[in-house]
Amino acid sequence: MKALLTIIKYLFLTLFLLIAGGFVVMYSLDPVVTTRIVQAPFKGIVGPRERVPGGEPIEIPAATIATISQAVLDQAVAYGEETGSHALIIYRDDGIELEKYYPGYNADSISQTQSMHKSVLAILIGIAIEEGYIGSIDDPAALYLPEWSGDDRAKITIKHMLRQTSGIDFATVGINPLGGFYQLMMGADVASAALNLPLAVEPGTQFDYNSAIPQNLGLIIQRATGERYARYLSQALWQYIGAPDAFVVLDSDEKSMPRTSCCLDATARSWLHIGLLHLDEGRIGDRQVAPAQWISDIATPGDINPNYGYLTWLGSEHDQFRYYNRKTSVRVFHSEPYVAEDVIYFDGFGGQRVYIIPSYRLVIVRTGDTSQSWDDAYLPNLIVRDLMKNAQDQAEGSD
Question: pLDDT per residue over 2-60, tens digit each?
């Protein structure tokens, strides 16, 4: 037994030395990515942060009349707790019916919300078109990305990018920890990592959700407007929605390019304000912040993937397991079809969500820890079924 324990000890020591040696080699080749890989389990995606200034606060009131049963709200809170949530907000009709912050978090807490930034970027592209910085969604992306003008990538349009049908090849998690995926998500020069990808298939023929395309759209925003991304985001959108300052995460101090496929860190209430833009056709108060038609276009199903609009997910058709692209096994569980036919939602990895259901004047915001068991149908269907039942009870009671 003593000899076996000695062998096990030496095996573990050997394994430790191999891993440590590997990290030493990695650090010598790319200290930025290596350091961020080590930090990721504890801090998520890290990098210098740039402030996105907010404007005058706009208070969203509590609902004057409760339309959702307390028992159902309690179920929603319990589901939030089971999935490690930081915040859960449910807005219905004219105000907030539930605003729950879990231990360690409050209304001022800022959480990492992963790819929900993509859906904000979709709104911002529409504003840039309205303001004349971008000609139209049919513009070739190469007008703003001349690096693509000399090859078949010149066929890619802004619309292809918004639909995630660009045809661009993209990197996924692989055995090389310093490879393309890690350069895109953690590297110190994210623009180069996103720009220097070849075409894989004909644009407009295949849906492949990936982070390289939104990153290039962020670069287009900067080049077209002549402004830093965070500054334009603030001037064109964030200062009008009544939310506090947010932050984007930069690739490095030297390059100072924000990661526009992810990493817009904001409060849960801020995400509610963005959700209300969809509910109110681009208006906040008496200001038309985003064109109403553009908000409608964002939520229009694409020809290739009817569950995707412009960088925003839709509940048009039921897939029990929703895959992101042809290269990954990562999937999200949908236990059943959506009860409502007009579900719009922002998807951040691991259950970061904003659900918008215009037919029920409903917005649900959830931020929190990464949940591998997240059920995308649970909260929307729980609430909508309750609203349907309550409406039916009222109708029967008035007969």
Answer: 665 566 565 565 555 555 565 576 677 677 777 787 777 777 788 899 999 999 999 99
Nearest-CA neighbor of 193 among 184, 201, 185? 184
The CATH label, of 3.40.50.1820, 3.40.710.10, 2.70.50.60, 3.40.50.2000, for the domain at 49-398 is 3.40.710.10
Q: Name the burial class of residue 283, with classes exposed (0-12), middle (13-18) and buried (19+) by CB atoms within 10 angstroms of its CB.
A: middle
What is the rounded average pLDDT of the residues 165-186? 81
What ranges do the domains of the chain cover? 2-41, 49-398
Task: Let me know: does 255 contact 190? Beta carbons within 8 Å.
Answer: yes
Model pLDDT for residues 229-256, shown as the tens digit of each residue: 999 999 999 999 999 999 999 999 999 9
Q: Label residue 399 by pLDDT band (50, 70, 90).
A: low
